[in-house]
Amino acid sequence: MAGPLPLGDPAPSDGRLPADLPIDPSVPFSAYLHIPFCRVRCGYCDFNTYTSSELRGARQEDYASTLLAEIDLARNVLDEAGALRPMDTVFFGGGTPTLLPAGDLALMLGAAVSAFGLAKGAEVTVEANPDTVTPEVARTLADAGVTRLSIGMQSAVPHVLAALDRTHDPDNVRTAVAAAKEAGLAVSVDLIYGAPGESLADWEASLDAALELDSDHISAYALIIEDGTKLARQIRRGEVPTPDDDLQADMYELADRRLAAAGFEWYEVSNWARSDAQRSRHNLAYWRGSDWWGFGPGAHSHVAGLRWWNVKHPAAYAQRLSASDSPAAGTERPDEDARMLERVLLQSRLVEGIAVADLPAGNRANVAGLIADGLVDARAAVQGRVQLTLRGRLLADAVVRELTD
């Protein structure tokens, strides 16, 4: 399970938005549907997920009908506030969404479409464990309106998967991708690098395997050790080594070279796509500060600068909704300084970068030093944008500090 929820102001029990919220109906709207169930908890994961033994008072088979109650609440709240818009993107994340029957996912998607509408050409993504994707599941999802499957491959090397506590059969990645493509779905593959005991050769083998799948999109994330996870405890006890920053940098550079040679273009520090059309539009909505409603336990939402988050446990979530109350646990409206920091943090990671004019006025002069250090592209800066070089991508956090501190 994830750590504690953020501190914030109490959320209204009816979920109503503040009357003075500056809602812009032209801002795109997205929906995130959190499916908080996993068969096994991976040692590195700190997401708000639950195995069957941790549910205590909640049942997977009741989840879809419970989430439909929040969809009804959201429609009423957004309609009253004048913020009702069709969804540009929908994303089922988790957890493992495909642990639920595909029919349950279709039911939730249908309810969201009925409540909000779906923009023309909308992107609808479902995250999936390779072991749970069959041709029948893929066809059911495609028939329901899903357009994209994001498959958690993580690695092709058995001992690396074991280090991550991933239990799926590596051979099932290929069959899952084939089933998705046969159903007409776009395919994204997720990888993690820097696991304990993973060598550069191991990572290269995983990249080779991912490229052989001929997917449309690849995400490659450096392993981060989160407090409270099993992996963090193993490292603290000296049972496994701490990830090597230099090795992770070598792995990132290898990924960038191999993916570029295969026709992929990076568009966010950890994400590559074969074309602009195959980028994850849902994640871009987050990075560009669009509006979204997050459904499910622990899910976070954002509308016009207002943020709120739901209670974490599925049982508490269901109890709130059964009483016709909002499941929101807290809310906040970040001030301009906080919004500026977040804007720089997120937009600087994108291939188009951030406009120099959008930086804090006192930090704009620091761009020259970042160019001198090889972290920011000089030609882009002359044209008024801060765009990361390859070295800058490796040191993106340092760039953000220089642009905001």
TrEMBL record:
PROSITE patterns: RADICAL_SAM. Residues 23-265 form the Radical SAM core domain. InterPro entries: Aldolase_TIM (IPR013785), Coproporphyrinogen-III_oxidase (IPR034505), Elp3/MiaA/NifB-like_rSAM (IPR006638), HemW-like (IPR004559), rSAM (IPR007197), rSAM_sf (IPR058240). The keyword Repeat does not apply. Pfam families: Radical_SAM (PF04055). Keywords: 4Fe-4S, Chaperone, Cytoplasm, Heme, Iron, Iron-sulfur, Metal-binding, S-adenosyl-L-methionine. This is Heme chaperone HemW.
